[in-house]
Amino acid sequence: MSKVVFGPTQTALVFVGLMIVLPILGAGTAILLEGYAARADRQPAVTAIEARVQTPPQPRLQVDPVGDRQAVLAPERLASTWGWTDKAKGRARMPVDVAMRRLAASGWPNAQADR
After folding, report:
1. Closest Cα partner for 93 from 75, 111, 114?
2. Whether the Cβ atoms of residue 92 and residue 85 lie closer than 8 Å to each other
């Protein structure tokens, strides 16, 4: 029984051949799959419902994810910062946790006693 031994030249040729053949096979497979998908898209509608253009139900995909996130976080930012709501009337906002601590320490203001 004889033993087959490949030298460095034969190994390099096999490697180069594989590097040439594999991309060609991949491209051929991609072309075949794309052709199959295009043919599948052209199948005629079986029912009237399939023939109509259908709009997915709400909620749909976000058009502006950054803007949506800012709209959700804006009230949270206001609830956690100090600032004037109406400086002329002397009205300000304070963080919710500070307001809760002050209310817990002093109790709920009595509206009848202030009159």
Report:
1. 75
2. yes
By residue count, the chain amounts to 115
Three-state DSSP at 102 gives: helix
> What are 75-108's pLDDT values in tens digits?
888 889 999 989 999 999 999 999 999 999 988 8
Provide the 10 A C-beta neighbour count for residue 94: 13
Rounded to 5°, angle at Cα 32 from 27 and 33? 100
Q: Which two tokens stand for residue 75?
A: 């009230």
Task: Decide: pTM greater than 0.85.
Answer: no
What is the rounded radius of gyration, in angstroms, for the C-alpha atoms of the chain?
A: 36
pLDDT over 70 (residue 32): yes
Coil vs helix vs strand at 83: strand
Q: Which residues contact 85 (CB under 8 A, 6 or more apart)?
A: 91, 92, 93
Number of helices (H) and strands (E) in the chain: give both, helices first: 5, 2
Identify residue 13 by its one-letter amino acid code.
L
Helix (H, G, I), strand (E, B) or coil at 84: strand
